[in-house]
Queue: 2 jobs
Job 1
Amino acid sequence: MSEHYRQPITVFGLILPVVIMLILIVGVLSYTSSVKDDYVAKKKKYDMSQTSKRQVAVLRNQVREHKPKMAAWDNMLRSETRGSFLEHWKRASEGFTGKELTKSSRSWINYSEGIGKGISQPSSQVVMSFVGTYRAMQSALMKLETTLPTMQLDSLDMTQDINGRGVNFTTKYTVWTRK
Amino acid sequence: MNDFRHPSGLNVFQQYRRSVKVAKSTSRMKNMAWYQDPLDLDVQIHCYLKDDAGASCYLYIKSHNVFEKCDDLNSRQLEQPEELIKFIDSALSRDVCRGAKALGVVLYLADEFSLAGLGPEYKKPSELTSLRGMMRDDPKAILDDKTISTESHAWRLFPYPGAAIGDEFATAVAVPCSRSNTLKILRDIGNEKNFPIKTRALSAPLCAIELVPLLLDTSQEGGVCLFNYCTFTLMAFFNSQGDLAVMRYMPHANGALMPANIGPAIQSTATALEMEKPDISVVSMVGNDVGDLSTTLQQSLPDAKVGIVGADDLIDDYDLPVGSPLEFIAVTQKIDPELYPLVENETNTALREEGWNKQDFLSSDQDEIDMFPDMADMKVLRLGRRVRAIAALLVVAVFGYGGYNTFTKINSSIWKYQAVDYKAETEILTNELKRFEHWDNLLMDRSKAWVCLELIALMMPSDDSVVVKFVKHEVKLKRESRGDKHGFSKEWIIDGFATDRGIEHLEKHSTSEGIKKLFSRVAQKTENAAYFPDTGQRDITVSLVPRINPSYNSFNGQKTGSAFERTFKLSITQNITAEDEMALAAIEGITR
C-alpha cells in the first residue's frame, strides 16, 4: 500500500463516513427512543384515563340505575316525621274496623336500643301496641313496613287478649333516620 | 491541476480526492490487470532490440501460447508517442486481441550489456536478498567501481549459484536506460486510454542463461556457453552440475561479429575454474554467423569440444515464428525437465523461482508509481464503498424505522390525547354509589313483622289442634370487633297449648330439615330473602319442649287451654353471620 494514499483513504473513505453514519444512527435511535419513552408515558396516561373513563361510565350507569330508588329513599328520609308516620299507620289500618285492629299505645325514643344500636347510622326507636286479629295485624304491618322500609323490627310480642278481643301485639322498631 | 502534482504536495483530503477520482474515472478499481506483471497478462508484445536500429516485435497470446510477428519499430518510432500509439492500436486491432483488457510490453535489451564486480566488502552469499534491493536502489554503494553511471545505466544483481566457496558469488549487470522513455510513453498511453499497459525491460543475455539446459550436456568438466550478440559476446561458465559459476562478457571491437582474443579469455577463466577441457557451445542469438568464432575457439583450445547450437532447430521445437529470438523460449515456454534435466538444477530453479533473469531493468520510478493509488489502496477504497453502502442502508433503515415509528406515534390519538381528570367525578360517583349501597344495606328486608307473623301462621296447623299463648320474637345485633359488618340473630319463643296431634304437627317443624323447609317456604311466599336457610352464612336451630298440660280438663274445656292435653315451648333461633349479604354494614364517613 502506498504511503501517500493509505491514511487518507482509510480516514476519509472508511473511518469518517462510518463514524458519521454511526453518529446519525445513534442520534436517530436516541431520538426514537426518547419519542418511544414519551409515547409509553403518554400511553400509560391514556390507558389510565381510558380505564378511569370506563370506570366512571360504569359508575355513572350504576348511579343512574340506582338514582330512582335513591331519589325515592332520599325523599322518604327527608319527608318522614313522626307525624307522617301516623299518617302512614292510618293508611295501613284503613279498611279495618276497631274490632279488627286497634292501636293501643305508641312511644318514640330518639335512639335505638335494638339493631340500630352501635350502627353509625342515626336511628330512632318506636314501640307500638295493638289489639286485633292476626290477619288484620299482619296486613296492616305489611302495608306499613312496605311503605316505610326504614323500619326494622327489633322485637314482637304477641299474647292473647285477656278480654277476648283478639290478640295483643307489641312491636318495637328501629327506624333509620337522616339525623 | 492536482492531477499532475506528486501526492506528497497534496494535503490528505486532496490525496483522498485523487484516489476517489482515479477509482471513478479509471478502471484501476475494477481491472486488476493494472497491478499485474506484464508477463502474466494474456496479451503481450515482445520487442527485441538487438542493436540501435530498432526493435523486432511479436504479439504473444499467453492463453493460446501463440506468437505472431507484428510490425517492427525503428529507433525513431520508439521515441515518438504518436507512432507508439499507432503501433499499440494496430496490435490491439488484431482479431486475437479482441476483448483484451490489458497489454504487457516486454522489451528485450540485447544491444548493450556490461558486468561489474561487487565491492570487496560483499562476500557473503547470505546477503543476496538485501544486496538485490540495494543494487536496485543505490548501485554505487555496493559496486567496486565507484565511477559507474547510474543515470545512463540501470543496474541489477545476478547470482552465480554454481560459484565455488570463496569465489565471486554474484555480479552486477547493467543495461542502458535509453529505452526507459519508450516504456514510460507506453505506460502513459495506457493511462490515457484507461487501458492497462504494463511494461518490463529484460536483459536478453540474462534470459539466455535460462536456455542453458537446452544447450549444454553435463560433463565432468563443466561447460561454457557463448551467447553471441551484435555488439558483445557473453561467456557463461557452468560447473559439472550445470550451475552457473561465472559470467564474462567481451565487446565486439569495430563492428566485428566476435570479440578479439576470446580463446585466451576462455582459457584463463576455465583454468581459474579448474576446467581443463570444457565443452563449449556457441549460440548465435541475433543471427550472426558464428562459424568463424567456433573455428577460432577450436584453434585456441584444441582439447576443448566446440559446438555450434542451431537456433532455428530450437525455435522450431517450440513452434515459434521463424527468426524469433531464442530468449522467447526462456521467458514464455516451459522447458520439459525430462528432456532437459538441467532445468531442475540450482541455477535454473533460482532463476525460475526468484526471477533473477526476468528482473525489470527499466521499471517505473517511485514518483511515477506514487501518482496512482496501488491495488491495496483500491481494495481499501472498495471496502470503504461497501462499508459505506452498508452503513448508508443501515442509516436509511434506521431513519425509516425511526421515522415511521416516530411519525405513527406522534400522529397517534394517544400522543394528542389530553388527559381528562376523572378523579373528582369518580369520587363523587363513588360516594354516591357508597351512599346507595349504605342505604340499600340498611333498608334490606332483614327483619319485618309481617313476615314473622307469616312464619308463625305457616307453622301452626289449621285444625285448631294448637293454640298459641304468647309469642316473643327478638332481633339482636351481633357486633363484630373487626370488620365493618355485623351479623344478627333472630329468636322466636312460642308458648302454647296443643293436642297430641298438634304436637305431632309441630314436631314436623322441629327438626333441622323441617325448620329449614318452613323458612324456605316463608321466604318464597313472602319473597323475603332473610328467610332463605341455605346460604352458607346462616344457621337455624329449633327446639320443641312439649309438656303435660296441668290444667287439662277433658270434660270442661272452657278455661283457656284446658281443652288441650299438652303445653309446649317452641324455640327457634336463626343466626346470620357478618359475611351474609343481610349483615348490617356500619360504614363510617359516608354522606347520609
Job 2
Amino acid sequence: MSRLARLVHPKDDTQAWKGRYYPYDLVKELVIAVGVILVIVVLLTVLLSSPDDKPSTIAQWSKQKPVDFVTTAITELDGTSATAEYGPPYNHRSGSVQHFFILHPQRWLGVSHPIDTERDFVLDPLRKVTSTPALQAAVSQYEAAPKNQKAQWTEAYAKPLEETATAEEEKKQPPGTVSESNGSVVVKPSGDAGPVPVLMGALLLAAQSGALDGDLLTSGQFYQTDYTKPLLFMADGGLLDERAEQQHLLGKQWGLMNETGSYPGQPWLWLYALWYQVEPMKSSPNADIQVLLIMALMSLAFICIPIIPGVRDLPRRIPIYRLIWREHYRSLGTGS
Amino acid sequence: MSVAEPAGVEPQASAVERKHESWTARVREAAVDALPPEKLLPDGQPTYVASWIYLFGVASIASLVVIIASGSILALKGPAWWHFTGVGHFFNSIHLWAVELFFFVMVVHLWGKYWVAAWRGGRVRVWITGAIIFLIAIPTALTGYVSQQNFDAQWISTQAKDALNSVGVGAFFNVTNFGQMYSWHVLLFPLAVVALVAGHVLLVRTHGVVPPFELQKRLELAGARAGDPSAGAGAGGRDGGGGGGA
Amino acid sequence: MIVLAAVFNLNHPAHTVDWHFIHLSVANVVVIGLMFVVFALAIALPFPGAERRRRALK
C-alpha cells in the first residue's frame, strides 16, 4: 500500500459484531421519540411562543425618518448609494465587489438581477404620478439634461444632507440647511439644484402614501414575489440598521447568531460568526468571501474527518468511549 | 397464473437468467440483497447499545418529523396566515422550536458519533451522509428565516445577500426574492434533507451500529495468542448485521 | 380572533454575555450550555434494559 493510501485508509481493526443481541423495538422507539419531541416543542411553544416583529415599509421609513429617506433617495438618483455602486449581480460598478486573490466569482457570475437605481427607485415611480403636470415637467427636464448637469444639480441638493448626516453621526451641531416639519423636508441646496428638489419632494410624498412600496414591487409585471428592489432601497437607508442594532443583530454584535427579542437564534452559526470578529477578516472589504472560503474548507474537513490523521485518532486517545460502553467492557471482565 | 409470474417467465430464475430480468426485478433483487427485511427492521440490537447517547439519532428524526408536519400545516394556509391568527402563530412556534431542537439533538448525536469514531468498519459513508445533512440543514433554515415575511426576514435577507453575492451564489440564489426562497424552503431543501436522512439510516441498517473499540489489553492478549483464529486484531471490518433478538 | 399569548414574553431586546470580543445572547448561551449538559448526562446516566442485556449474554 502506498504512503498516501496508508494515510487515507488507516489500519482499522474493527471486527464485525459476533456477540449477542437483545430485544430492541426500533419502531416503538421512533414513535416514543416523536411523542417526546412533540411534548417538549408544545411546552416551549406554550411557555415562550415565537417572535414576529412586523416588517418595516417604505411608508413607515419615510414617515418616521423623512430626512434619512431623502438623504438616501438623492444617493439613488445620483448613483452614489450602496446599491447604485454595488456591482454584480445588480450592476457593473464595483462598490461591493469582493475577491480572494485570483478568485473573482462575483464578477464571473455577472449581472443577473439588473437594478438602475436612478430609473428604478426614482424616475419610473415618479412617472406614474401622472396627475401632477409640474412634476412630469420636472422629470422630463431632469431626463433631458446632460450627465454633468445632472451631477451639478444632485450635488447641490446632496451636500447639505450629507453635512447634516455627518454632523449627527459625530454628535455635532448640524449646519441648519436641512429642516423637517410635519413629515416634509426642506433642503437649502448649496447651489442650483434644478428640478431635483421637486423630484425629491414628490418621491417623499409617494413614499409616505404607500405608493412606493407597491410601485417598487410590481414594476415590470402584475404578479410579483421578488422584494429585491424595496428591500435594497430600505437597506440603503438607516431604519433597518437602527432596528437591527436595538435587537443585537449587527455583525459586530454577533448578530448572525441572534434572533429578534430574547429568543435563542442560530447557535449553530457560532463558528461562522466568530471569523468575522477576527483579523484580517474583521477589517477587510473582502470579509464575506474570506469567511465563506474558510467555512467551506472547514466543512470539507468535517466531512472528511474519517480520513484526517490525528483528528480521526482523537476518539481512541481520549476515552469518552469507555463511559459509553462501560457496561459492555464490564461484561467482558477486562475492567477499566 | 399469478401477477408475479407472467406467461413464459420461469419462477426462481437461475443466476444466468437473472441478467436478463426486468429492471424492476433487478432493483428488487439488489434491494433485498443489500437489506433483507430482518436487516432493514431488526427487532434486536447488539448488547453494547446501552447508552442514552444512542437515542439522539432517532431524536433527530423525530424532530424532523415534527418540523415537516408543522411546516405542512403552515404551507396549507399559505405564508401570510401565521401573522394574523393565534392558531397560525401556534404552529409557527411549533415549527421554530422543532428546528431549534433538531439542531440541538443532531449536534449532540454528532458529538456522540465522533467520540466513538462511528466511521470505523466500513462506515465512512454513514459519517459523510450525516455531515452533509448537518451542512444542508443550515441553508434549509436560512431559506425559512428569509421566508418569514417579517422584520427578521428583511434583515437576514439584506445581510445574507452580501455574503452570497461575494461568492457568486447570489447571482442565481436571491435571498431577497421571496418566491424563490419559499419554493426552496418548502420543497427543494426538505426533499434533499429527507433523501439524505433516508440514505443515512439505510446505511446504518446495512452496516449495523459500530462496535466498541477493542480494549488495548484484549488486543495485546490477542497478539500474544497470534495464530489463534479467535484472536482480535485484523484489518478491515466486514459488515455487521442487524440480527434477531437474544 | 383568539391570540394565544406566551406564558413568558421574550419580545424585548436580549441581554448579552460579553467576554473580550465575544458577545453572545443569553438565550444562545443557555442553549449551548444545555447541549454540553445533555451530552454529559447522555453518556453518564445508566440506560434502561440492563436486565434484558444480562439475560441475552447468559
